C-alpha cells in the first residue's frame, strides 16, 4: 500500500510539473521580454507642449487598448469606425479605443471569469483576429487608463499602424460588442502565443517610436512603460 501511495504521489508531482512548468516559464520569459526596451532613446514630450497629442493606454487586466482622440489633423477615426455601427450612435463621443486579439477569446472573454478551457486552447494554438473598438466621451485618466503624450509625427505613425490592421471594407465583418458603445471588426493578422493582444498594443506603440518592451504577452508588460498618475 505504501509503495502504491508513493507511486501515486510521484505521478501527481510529475503531472503538476508538466502542467505548471510551461506556465511558469512563459510567465518568466514574458517578464524578461517586457523588460527589454525598444526605442530606448525615446523621450516623451513635456506636459504643456501645445503640439503634443495625448493618448491613453488602458488595461482591464486581460486586454490593453489604445485610446485616441476621435478627430485630429492626423486622423479622423469616424471614417474607419462610424458611430452608426454602435447601438448608441448619438452620444457625443470624443475618443475611440482600439485593441486587437483572437476572435473567440475576445468575443467570449470580457473578464477572466468568462474564460473557458476550450477558448483558451483555441487562442493559444492560433486564431482569426478582430479589432475591438470602443467609443468614449471624455475618458478620465487613472492608473488603469494612463496618459501618453506623442508628437504629431509619432501620432500619425501610430494611427497608420493601427489602420493597417483593418480588413478591407469588402471583407470586413461587424460584430456586436460588450455594450452599447463598442463593436468588433474582423481584422488582419493571426493571434498566437507569441503574438497576443498585448503584444499588438506594444507593436503599435513601437511603430510610432515610443519606448516599450520587446515582448509583452501580459497587460502588465505594456503598462509598466507608461507612467501612472503618481509619476506624472
Describe this structure in words.
With 232 residues, the chain is α+β, with helices and mostly antiparallel strands. The strands form 2 sheets. It has a 7-stranded antiparallel sheet. The chain has a two-stranded antiparallel sheet with strand order 1-9. The chain contains 6 helices and 9 strands, in the order αββββααββαββαβα. α4 packs across α5.
List the helices and strands and how they pair.
Blueprint: H1 2-35, E1 37-38, E2 53-59, E3 64-69, E4 95-102, H2 103-108, H3 117-125, E5 127-136, E6 145-150, H4 152-163, E7 174-176, E8 182-191, H5 197-207, E9 212-213, H6 219-223
Antiparallel strand pairs: 1-9, 2-3, 2-6, 3-4, 4-5, 5-8, 7-8
TL;DR of this structure?
With 232 residues, the protein is of the alpha+beta class.
Radius of gyration in whole Å, from Cα?
20 Å
Shape: globular
Q: What structural class do the secondary elements suggest?
A: alpha+beta
Give the tally of β-strands.
Answer: 9
**N- and C-termini, Cα separation:** 64 Å
Q: Into which percentage range does the β-strand content fall?
A: 15-25%
Number of helices: 6
Please state how the strands of the largest beta sheet are arranged side by side. Answer: 6-2-3-4-5-8-7
Mean of pLDDT: 86
Helix content: 25-40%
Biggest β-sheet, characterized? 7 strands, antiparallel
Order of helices and strands: HEEEEHHEEHEEHEH
Given as residue ranges, the uncertain stretches (5+ residues, pLDDT < 50) are none
Features:
232 residues, alpha+beta, 7-stranded antiparallel β-sheet, globular
Amino acid at each position: 500500500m505504501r509503495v502504491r501511495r508513493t507511486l501515486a504521489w510521484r505521478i501527481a508531482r510529475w503531472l503538476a510539473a508538466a502542467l505548471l512548468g510551461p506556465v511558469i516559464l512563459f510567465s518568466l520569459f514574458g517578464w524578461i521580454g517586457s523588460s527589454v526596451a525598444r526605442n530606448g532613446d525615446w523621450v516623451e514630450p513635456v506636459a504643456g507642449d501645445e503640439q503634443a497629442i495625448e493618448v491613453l493606454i488602458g488595461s482591464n487586466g486581460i486586454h490593453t487598448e489604445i485610446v485616441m482622440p476621435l478627430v485630429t489633423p492626423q486622423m479622423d477615426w469616424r471614417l474607419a469606425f462610424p458611430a452608426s455601427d454602435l447601438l448608441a450612435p448619438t452620444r457625443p463621443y470624443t475618443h475611440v479605443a482600439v485593441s486587437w486579439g483572437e476572435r473567440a477569446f475576445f468575443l467570449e472573454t470580457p473578464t477572466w471569469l468568462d474564460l473557458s478551457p476550450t477558448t483558451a486552447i483555441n487562442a493559444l494554438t492560433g486564431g482569426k483576429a478582430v479589432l475591438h473598438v470602443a467609443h468614449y466621451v471624455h475618458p478620465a485618466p487613472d492608473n488603469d487608463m494612463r496618459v501618453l503624450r506623442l508628437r504629431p509625427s509619432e501620432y500619425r505613425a501610430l494611427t497608420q499602424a493601427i489602420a493597417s490592421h483593418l480588413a478591407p471594407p469588402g471583407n470586413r465583418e461587424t460584430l456586436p460588442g460588450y455594450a452599447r458603445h463598442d463593436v468588433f471588426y474582423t481584422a488582419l493578422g493571426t493571434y498566437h502565443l507569441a503574438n497576443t493582444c498585448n503584444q499588438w498594443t506594444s507593436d503599435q506603440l513601437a511603430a510610432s517610436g515610443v519606448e516599450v518592451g520587446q515582448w509583452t504577452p501580459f497587460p502588465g508588460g505594456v503598462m509598466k512603460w507608461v507612467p501612472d498618475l503618481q509619476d506624472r
